[in-house]
């Protein structure tokens, strides 16, 4: 089957222009991500390159073909830099310009003077840029976006497609610009590259939307002051611990509850901004002292919690003491002010990870209350078989709803509802 290259050129130019305009319009309307805007600009530059190359073939102008190829290379370079910026790296205009500039210099000084030489050089540069862009998408492991892998695969396939231009140009060379329309292979590779670019545009839109949704969910589950998971995230984590680790149900599970001592006095003495500094300092202490697999968060106000799967009571108590000592040292003086910040900690543990984690939080709360009653600035532990010395008032209404027992996260939510005016 012979494809009509003039028709293909018109369709490719028109469709690529439309895709570029749509992407730019979406970015302008939402300003959601620079990646969409830059990808749209790259498509418009690509369409311009296709237009110049097609016009040059009709007018038999090798220089115009080279200019069109340089624009196509510029388009691929813009896409590469846009993905770098999407991954948090710098957007360097010099790195964008060096690729088409190198092609123009090579064409002008005889390195790739013939049409086939320029075709091989341009396809090599395009393949390199698309493969580098695929690598940029694949290398970002910290952000788990499902759309990254289709994008990487498409970019790698397009890059590999450009590499096939080289053996085709060597075995079936196009001797002159006027002979382009007589080529049997050139229309096929043009169509394949065009379809890949269109598919990529949809994947880019999906990826940006996926990132927005992920960040919105993360924002909804993060305490804005401390950067720790908020109460809602902690409750979800409590249920997930039980669901995910039922196979290892014989493993121990520990829970810690933290309450900063005399926090209201700190706020009244030094002001709320200083109180926020104390909260941030304590949250950093938790991050520094507890293990990475520990789930910690701010319940609200000056109350924090940590869930430690696979950790027995003795280890949890030792970790809690490290937190207490580290915070007492760090908060003794803040900005030269004798704050003397301390924390009381309640620790409870169970030897079965499939236990009622809501009841475990209740026991840790009882231990925390005992630590406060005993003078604060201390760690109080309660073992799996120990009874609570300090029962909370209205305990039945806390741990049982009006319609029966609550799920673990519901129990925690009922217990800690409204623990602070600035709770996240």
TrEMBL record:
The chain crosses the membrane at residues 6-28, 35-58, 64-82, 94-113, 119-138, 145-165, 185-208. Keywords: Membrane, Transmembrane, Transmembrane helix. Its EC number is 2.7.7.65. GO terms for biological process: cell adhesion involved in single-species biofilm formation; negative regulation of bacterial-type flagellum-dependent cell motility. It catalyses: 2 GTP = 3',3'-c-di-GMP + 2 diphosphate. Pfam families: GGDEF (PF00990). It comes from the Bacteria. This is diguanylate cyclase. The lineage of its organism: Bacteria, Pseudomonadati, Pseudomonadota, Alphaproteobacteria, Hyphomicrobiales.
């Amino acid at each position: 089957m012979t494809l009509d290259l003039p028709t293909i050129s018109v369709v490719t130019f028109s469709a690529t222009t439309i895709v570029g305009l749509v992407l730019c319009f979406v970015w302008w309307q939402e300003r959601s991500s620079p990646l969409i805007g830059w990808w749209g600009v790259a498509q418009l530059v690509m369409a311009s390159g296709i237009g110049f190359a097609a016009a040059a073939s009709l007018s038999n102008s090798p220089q115009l073909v080279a200019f069109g190829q340089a624009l196509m290379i510029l388009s691929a370079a813009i896409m590469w830099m846009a993905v770098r910026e999407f991954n948090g790296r710098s957007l360097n205009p010099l790195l964008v310009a060096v690729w088409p500039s190198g092609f123009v210099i090579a064409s002008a000084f005889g390195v790739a003077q013939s049409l086939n030489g320029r075709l091989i050089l341009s396809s090599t540069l395009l393949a390199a840029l698309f493969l580098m862009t695929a690598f940029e998408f694949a290398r970002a492991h910290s952000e788990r976006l499902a759309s990254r892998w289709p994008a990487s695969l498409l970019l790698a396939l397009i890059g590999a497609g450009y590499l096939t231009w080289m053996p085709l140009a060597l075995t079936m060379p196009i001797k002159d610009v006027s002979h382009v329309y007589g080529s049997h292979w050139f229309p096929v590779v043009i169509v394949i590259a065009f379809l890949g670019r269109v598919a990529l545009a949809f994947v880019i839109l999906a990826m940006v939307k996926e990132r927005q949704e992920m960040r919105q969910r993360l924002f909804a589950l993060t305490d804005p002051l401390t950067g720790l998971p908020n109460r809602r995230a902690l409750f979800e984590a409590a249920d997930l611990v039980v669901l995910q680790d039922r196979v290892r149900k014989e493993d121990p599970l520990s829970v810690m509850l933290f309450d900063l001592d005399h926090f209201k006095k700190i706020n009244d003495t030094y002001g709320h901004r200083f109180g926020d500094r104390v909260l941030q300092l304590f949250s950093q202490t938790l991050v520094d002292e507890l293990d990475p697999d520990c789930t910690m968060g701010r319940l609200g106000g000056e109350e924090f919690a940590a869930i430690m799967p696979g950790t027995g009571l003795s280890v949890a108590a030792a970790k809690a003491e490290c937190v207490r000592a580290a915070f007492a040292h760090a908060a003794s003086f803040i900005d030269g002010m004798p704050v003397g910040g301390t924390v009381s900690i309640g620790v409870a543990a169970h030897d079965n990870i499939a236990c009622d984690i809501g009841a475990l939080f209740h026991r840790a709360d009882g231990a925390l209350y005992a630590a406060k009653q005993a003078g604060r600035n201390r760690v109080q532990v309660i073992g799996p078989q120990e009874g609570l010395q300090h029962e909370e008032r209205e305990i039945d209404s806390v741990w049982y709803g009006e319609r029966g027992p609550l799920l673990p996260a519901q129990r925690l939510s009922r217990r800690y509802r409204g623990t602070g005016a600035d709770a996240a």
